[in-house]
UniProtKB/TrEMBL annotation:
Matches recorded under SUPFAM superfamilies: Acyl-CoA N-acyltransferases (Nat) (SSF55729)
Leader peptide range in chain numbering: none
Keyword vocabulary terms for this entry: Acyltransferase, Transferase
Catalytic reaction annotation: L-methionine sulfone + acetyl-CoA = N-acetyl-L-methionine sulfone + CoA + H(+); L-methionine sulfoximine + acetyl-CoA = N-acetyl-L-methionine sulfoximine + CoA + H(+)
Organism per entry: Rhodocytophaga rosea
Protein name: N-acetyltransferase
Pfam families associated with the record: Acetyltransf_1
InterPro entries: Acyl_CoA_acyltransferase, GNAT_dom
GO MF entries: acyltransferase activity, transferring groups other than amino-acyl groups
Organism ancestry: Bacteria, Pseudomonadati, Bacteroidota, Cytophagia, Cytophagales
Highest taxon of the lineage: Bacteria
Residue span(s) of domain N-acetyltransferase: 9-170
Record carries keyword Acyltransferase: yes
Length: 170
């Protein structure tokens, strides 16, 4: 095997030891992209509380580990906080900027879909910045369809942003 080729990412449940890498990945997305409509980098305390809440709620946080490094993560949560939405989950997947295009997102998506089906969710929902064609097309490959487009609901980097909702029926 060629040692210069990246290994197939291994997908597993996140542990508190993964939070430093998760924090680095999400903060890069916050500071450098419109993938997250947030302005300020997150703190370790925020990520610790986030992971603890996911675990307490029985919701997955998956990490992709490649060459002994966490290079991506994905999770989902209930779409809206009312009982009638308990079968609808909104997911997120983030891959480290320097390893995108290597199939890491694919493995995370497959893991999240499998977990959502096992937990008897009825649908997965994605909120995607309308200019993020890569994410949009990625979701299409998994059978997601566009179900809504909200004009100028986000504001970041001194411009208005449109948000697209895509949905996969499980």
């Amino acid at each position: 095997m060629n040692p210069n080729l990246p290994l197939t990412p291994q997908i597993r449940e996140a542990t508190p030891q993964d939070l430093e890498a998760i924090l680095e990945i999400i903060n890069h997305a916050i500071v450098q992209t419109t993938a997250v409509y947030d302005y300020r980098p997150r703190t370790m305390e925020f990520q610790q509380a986030w992971l603890a809440k996911k675990h307490a709620d029985g919701l997955p946080v998956l990490v992709a580990e490649q060459n002994n490094h966490v290079v991506g993560f994905g999770s989902y949560g209930i779409f809206r906080p009312w009982d009638g939405y308990r079968y609808s989950a909104e997911h997120s997947i983030y891959v480290a900027h320097d390893v995108r295009g290597q199939g890491i997102g694919k493995k995370l998506m497959e893991g999240l879909i499998e977990k959502a089906k096992a937990q008897q969710f009825h649908t997965l929902i994605a909120g995607i910045d309308a200019d993020n064609r890569i994410s949009y097309e990625f979701h299409l490959k998994y059978g997601f369809v566009e179900v809504g487009r909200f004009r100028e609901v986000g504001h970041k980097f001194d411009r208005w942003l449109d948000l697209v909702f895509m949905q996969l029926m499980l």
